[in-house]
Amino acid sequence: MGTFTGLELHPDVVPGIKALSRSAELLTLSNGPSAAARSLPHRGGVEGLFAHFLSFQPAPRWEPSPGAYGARQSQDRAEELMLVAVHPWVIHGANAAAWRTTWINRT
């Protein structure tokens, strides 16, 4: 998680987050502490566009285990949520927990 605090956002991320924030409530979801997940959007200047910074830490399992997604901290109904991720294993876990997903292929 220490390396995570030094990462920078890809150039297309900020415009994408701004566009998504106009039509959806945005949250982050991380295996690490929510404070670590907050650092990257903060450095990119888009921290204020996220409603919540969630962590799997209180869940009985970490991603990609479906049990992790069942313990989400949002009050939204599952059919109103969509997980957007660049890691295929995250998408796999969320799909197994019946979440809607969008995979961004960075290659």
Describe the structure.
It contains four helices and four strands; from the N terminus they run αβαβαβαβ. It is α/β, with parallel strands linked by helices and 107 residues long. It folds into two domains: 1-50, no CATH class; 56-107, no CATH class. The strands form two sheets. The chain has a two-stranded parallel ribbon. Strands 3-4 form a two-stranded parallel ribbon.
Helices and strands in order:
Elements: H1 13-21, E1 26-30, H2 34-43, E2 50-55, H3 66-70, E3 82-85, H4 88-96, E4 100-103
Parallel strand pairs: 1-2, 3-4
Describe the structure concisely for a colleague.
By secondary structure, this protein is an alpha/beta fold. The protein has helices at 13-21, 34-43, 66-70, 88-96; strands spanning 26-30, 50-55, 82-85, 100-103.
> What's the mean pLDDT score?
79
Between the first and last Cα atoms, what is the distance in angstroms? 23 Å
Number of separate domains: 2
What is the ordering of alpha helices and beta strands?
Answer: HEHEHEHE
Helix content: 25-40%
DSSP strand (E) fraction? 15-25%
Tell me how many strands there are: 4
Spatial strand arrangement across the major sheet: 1-2
**Which regions have little confidence, pLDDT < 50, spanning 5+ residues?**
none
Supply the number of helical segments. Answer: 4
Shape: globular
Biggest sheet descriptor:
2 strands, parallel
Gyration radius (Cα, Å) is 13 Å
The helix/strand class is alpha/beta
